[in-house]
Amino acid sequence: LHTGKQLDGIWHTSIIVHKDEFFYGSGGISSCAPGGTLLGPPDTVVDLGNTEVTEEIFLEYLSSLGESAFRGESYNLFEHNCNTFSNEVAQFLTGKKIPSYITDLPSEVLATPFGQALRPLLDSIQIQPPGGNTFSRHNGQS
């Protein structure tokens, strides 16, 4: 009998804070109303707690991330993806990481012969869930 862990895919994650959903893809940091991308409502919601970070400070922080580590061209499906972004933002807001079963999944996929065989193709994939607005610090401000 041979058993193995089933790898269903790689999770897409985002962070909902101050009444908006923020996520990262090949288009950079984007925002939308919660559940507002074409991916629709989430399969799972993980409550990471509350934040003392004000909306103004958070938007300044996001702006700096978008100009540095989380530019669109920095996106990589396995090493620098939406989960990397969600994990970093969660720690900034709450001091807590997102669950390791999410962040560990890409390396688990790559550890399989199938993942290794598909890596050149998968590395070329750029993911940007449709329906979000590219984040800028002045979104919704006059």
Automatic annotation (TrEMBL):
GO terms for molecular function: palmitoyl-(protein) hydrolase activity; peptidase activity. It holds the Pfam family Peptidase_C97. It catalyses: S-hexadecanoyl-L-cysteinyl-[protein] + H2O = L-cysteinyl-[protein] + hexadecanoate + H(+). SMART domains: DUF862. Gene3D superfamilies: PPPDE domains (3.90.1720.30). Its EC number is 3.1.2.22. Keywords: Hydrolase, Protease. Belongs to the DeSI family. This is palmitoyl-protein hydrolase. The gene is Desi1.
